[in-house]
Amino acid sequence: MSIDIGGMRIKYKDKDDTFLEKHLVSKEPFGQFKAWFEEACTRKEILEPNAMCLATSSKDGYPSARFVLLKGFGKEGFKFFTNYGSRKAKEMEINPNVAATFYWEILNRSVRIEGSVEKLSEEESTSYFHSRPVPSQIAACASYQSTPIESRDILCEREKELEAKYMIPGLEVPKPAYWGGYIIRPRAVEFWQGQRDRLHDRIKFRKPKEGEEPDEKILHRGEDGWVFERLSP
Ligand SMILES: Cc1cc2nc3c(=O)[nH]c(=O)nc-3n(C[C@H](O)[C@H](O)[C@H](O)COP(=O)(O)O)c2cc1C
């Protein structure tokens, strides 16, 4: 049986409030991301504005994607945490090139990041691990992420054992060696603003190719070594 959902569509905008180059609040991607992210955080309809879909790729070139939560960003990059034994981590070990996408539906906005990952320091991962609620720390210890498991009961058993061991005043749950963070150092960041009749706005920041010089018409000089250009929707 095939279900036809070809008629499912929404109108993005009634009025034509375009996202033009003059509306950029920053000529480098982090300042622009900060502005859009902060706006997304003010909208109660967006429950997890920091949720991003992270795509990695196996050594044979088969991509896989899943959501993770952004836990920090700045000029140095975008940070998230996970299990270093997980499928994504194994893929990033072999191929550090990743892509991540945010979608803030109520704002008709999306941000696309492309770059390569590096592991965060053990100190930073440990410090973030202990800032999480204790049940989440226990869950991270109980789960060998991405490995097949016979039943949920086994997971709950492990959780109980760890609770008995560590949920004692004065004791800290030790961060497992297989858990930690990554930073995506971006090569490109695109800002997508949905517009009326699918004539969307796309402004992409990227690092220039070797010898590539900005020109007046298409490729604009940004700040901090970035250039930006408008892409067709
Ligand atoms: C909204 C959302 C946020 C998530 N955040 C994280 C996260 O920050 N870190 C993480 O390891 N998994 C997170 N997950 C679970 C992942 O999507 C995924 O199931 C898990 O990381 C295993 O992926 P993998 O087998 O491809 O490595 C999140 C899932 C959702 C839906």
Protein traits:
Pnp Oxidase, Chain A, alpha+beta, binds flavin mononucleotide, single chain, globular
Would you mind describing this structure in some detail?
By secondary structure, the protein is α+β, with helices and mostly antiparallel strands. The chain has a single domain (21-132, 176-230), classed as Pnp Oxidase, Chain A (Roll), CATH 2.30.110. The protein contains 5 helices and 9 strands. It has helices spanning 29-41, 87-94, 122-131, 134-142, 152-166, and strands spanning 51-57, 63-74, 77-83, 97-104, 109-119, 179-193, 201-206, 220-221, 227-230. The protein has a 6-stranded antiparallel beta barrel. Strand 4 (97-104) and strand 5 (109-119) form a beta hairpin. Helix 4 (134-142) crosses helix 5. The longest helix has 15 residues, at 152-166. The protein is globular and about 65 Å long. Flavin mononucleotide binds at residues 48, 51, 64, 66-69, 80-83, 86-88, 145-146. Homodimer. Pathway: Cofactor metabolism; pyridoxal 5'-phosphate salvage; pyridoxal 5'-phosphate from pyridoxine 5'-phosphate: step 1/1; Cofactor metabolism; pyridoxal 5'-phosphate salvage; pyridoxal 5'-phosphate from pyridoxamine 5'-phosphate: step 1/1. Catalyzes the oxidation of either pyridoxine 5'-phosphate (PNP) or pyridoxamine 5'-phosphate (PMP) into pyridoxal 5'-phosphate (PLP).
Overview in brief:
This protein has 233 residues and is an alpha+beta fold.
> What is the string of helix and strand elements?
HEEEHEEHHHEEEE
pLDDT average, as an integer?
95
Structure summary, number of beta strands: 9
Report the sheet-strand fraction.
25-35%
How many separate structural domains?
1
Rg over CA atoms: 21 Å
The second-level CATH architecture is Roll
